[in-house]
TrEMBL record, chain A:
Transmembrane segments: 252-272
Family matches, as InterPro entries: SNARE, Syntaxin, Syntaxin/epimorphin_CS, Syntaxin_N, T_SNARE_dom
Keyword list, A-Z: Acetylation, Coiled coil, Membrane, Protein transport, Transmembrane, Transmembrane helix, Transport
Stated name of the protein: t-SNARE coiled-coil homology domain-containing protein
Gene3D superfamilies (alphabetical): 1.20.5.110, 1.20.58.70
Residues in T-SNARE coiled-coil homology domain copies: 180-242
Pfam families referenced in this protein's UniProt entry, alphabetically: SNARE, Syntaxin_2
Any one GO CC term of the record: endomembrane system
PANTHER family in alphabetical order: LD27581P, SYNTAXIN
Lineage: Eukaryota, Viridiplantae, Streptophyta, Embryophyta, Tracheophyta
Subcellular location: Prevacuolar compartment membrane
GO terms, biological process: intracellular protein transport; late endosome to vacuole transport; vesicle docking; vesicle fusion
One GO MF term: SNAP receptor activity
Gene that this sequence comes from: LOC100811200
UniProtKB/TrEMBL annotation, chain B:
Topology of this chain in the membrane: Single-pass type IV membrane protein
Pfam families recorded: Longin, Synaptobrevin
Top-level taxonomy: Eukaryota, Viridiplantae, Streptophyta, Embryophyta, Tracheophyta
Domain Longin: 7-111
Protein name: Vesicle-associated membrane protein 713
Length: 273, 219
């Protein structure tokens, strides 16, 4: 029993050491993929803004910086994934670790595909739309016509033009306020959904911990049953041998009784004579 | 609560309306139709007491609804968009030449149905539907946690029982081994007894044949 325990202790220690060394590249890859996911979401949000009144030169610059940032993240994560893959091939690790690394590789490819799609969409929209320049608020036609006909306009016409322009600005302000209110409400809803998803994530983590602990319990049950099975088999063997020996005992007992009977008979005959 | 009153108009002419409760919403709605500035497409909201009037004007057609202040803006304006599309699809160009309340008899039922839908059905808004689904997932996961905890308790009992069984089988093995040893020793003793008895018989027979306990005649 104690010898078996000593044997059990040694692989466990080495396995733990392997796991500690093995855990870092895989976790690094997972963290990298998560960061790329977040950056790609930001990039997609910026791409969706192209072609709207908020499409400005600053937005284009931000889009460009985000694209470069994602490229850098992709490069780093690719290197880490290659490192993890090399460790998988060289060191003989258990199958679950290989499965986890394969899953990470697939996630990485999915994120890359999504980024390429967003990048293509960004290129299309950047070509189709020109950025909105806030300095030139008035359309060029207004400017040209005003310059051409400026001196000929009567004060009444000029007042009408100013009034129309003011109403247009007011209309745009109303639209902006409306859209911002809608966006704020949607953001609040999405925040609540995110909170609920966070709670579900916590529940899943707790469930994983519980299931893992119960896995250990089931292992204990399994080992108990296996030990019971072995002990019962040995006991059955012992009882079988005992049964065989007892059969031999019965034969010897009968033989002794027969011999005693014969001796007694002879003694009686001799005394009678 | 949700949406309580809805109206479709052209300019300041009311074409169809429906009211879910008995309020003065109709009068206020007419005032709003009179006062909306300009002729452009617009989205505006006016608040009065606990209610908010949401107005959407597109292509000369005005759609208005009164909603509770807890309904927010996303659902009422989705409702207005939906009503506008249904109205235009149903009546087309006739909108521009219709008489006041010309569509009220048939379209007020549509207004009623859509008010009910956007007020009560979670599917009217994708975010609300997602919220509902996430709540369901959370409830199911909480049930799963309870079931797994219960399973854990039963597994603990099972661990105890299998540990007891293991102890009992170890004891059984030990007693079986002891029993085998006992039976074996009994066998040994019987064999020795048999040999002794046979030797005694042989000695007695020889004593008789050789005429004496010391066996004088045979040596």
């Amino acid at each position: 029993m104690s010898f078996q325990d000593i044997e059990a202790g040694r692989p466990f220690g080495s396995r733990r050491g392997l796991m500690n060394g093995k855990q870092d590249p895989t976790q690094a890859v997972a963290a990298g993929i998560f960061q790329i996911n977040t950056a790609v979401s930001t990039f997609q949000r910026l791409v969706n803004t192209l072609g709207t009144p908020k499409d400005t030169l600053d937005l284009r610059e931000k889009l460009h910086k985000t694209r470069l940032h994602i490229g850098q993240l992709v490069k780093d994560t690719s290197a880490k994934l290659k490192q993890a893959s090399d460790i998988d091939h060289h060191a003989e690790v258990n199958a679950s670790k290989k499965i986890a690394d394969a899953k990470l590789a697939k996630d990485f490819q999915a994120v890359l595909k999504e980024f390429q799609k967003a990048q293509r969409l960004a290129a299309e929209r950047e070509t189709a739309y020109t950025p909105f320049v806030p300095q030139a608020v008035l359309p060029s036609s207004y400017t040209a016509s005003e310059v051409d006909v400026g001196s000929d306009k009567s004060p009444e016409q000029r007042a009408l033009l100013v009034e129309s322009r003011r109403q247009e600005v007011l209309f745009l302000d109303n639209e902006i306020a409306f859209n911002e209110a809608i966006i704020e409400e949607r953001e609040q809803g999405i925040q609540e959904i995110q909170q609920q998803i966070g709670e579900v994530n916590e529940i899943f983590k707790d469930l994983a911990v519980l299931v893992h602990e119960q896995g250990a319990m089931i292992d204990d049950i399994g080992s108990n049953i296996e030990n019971s099975h072995a002990a019962t088999a040995q006991a059955k063997s012992q009882l079988s041998k005992a049964s065989k020996t007892q059969r031999s005992n019965s034969s010897l007992t009968c033989l002794l009784l027969v011999i005693f009977g014969i001796v007694l008979l002879i003694v009686i005959i001799v005394l009678a004579a | 609560m949700g949406i309580l009153y809805a109206l479709v108009g052209r300019g300041s002419v009311v074409l169809a309306e429906f009211s879910g409760t008995t309020t003065n919403a109709s009068a206020i709605a007419r005032q709003i139709l009179e006062k909306i500035p300009g002729n452009n497409d617009t989205h505006v909201s006016y608040s009065q007491d606990r209610y908010i009037f949401h107005v959407k004007r597109t292509d000369g057609l005005t759609v208005l609804c009164m909603a509770d202040d807890t309904a927010g803006r996303r659902i009422p304006f989705a409702f207005l968009e939906d009503i506008h599309q249904k109205f235009v699809r149903t009546y087309g160009r006739a909108v521009h030449s219709a008489q006041p309340y010309g569509m009220n008899e048939e379209f007020s039922r549509v207004l009623s149905q859509q008010m009910e839908y956007y007020s009560s059905d979670p599917n009217a808004d994708r975010i609300n539907r997602l919220k509902g689904e996430m709540s369901q997932v959370r409830n199911v996961m909480i049930e799963n946690i309870d079931k797994v905890l219960d399973r854990g308790d039963r597994l603990e009992l099972l661990v105890d029982k299998t540990a007891n069984m293991q102890g009992n089988t170890f004891r059984f093995r030990k007693q079986a081994r002891r029993f085998r040893s006992t039976v074996w020793w009994r066998n040994v003793k019987l064999t020795i007894a048999l040999i002794v008895v046979l030797l005694v018989i042989v000695y007695v027979v020889l004593a008789f044949v050789c005429h004496g306990p010391a066996l004088p005649s045979c040596f």
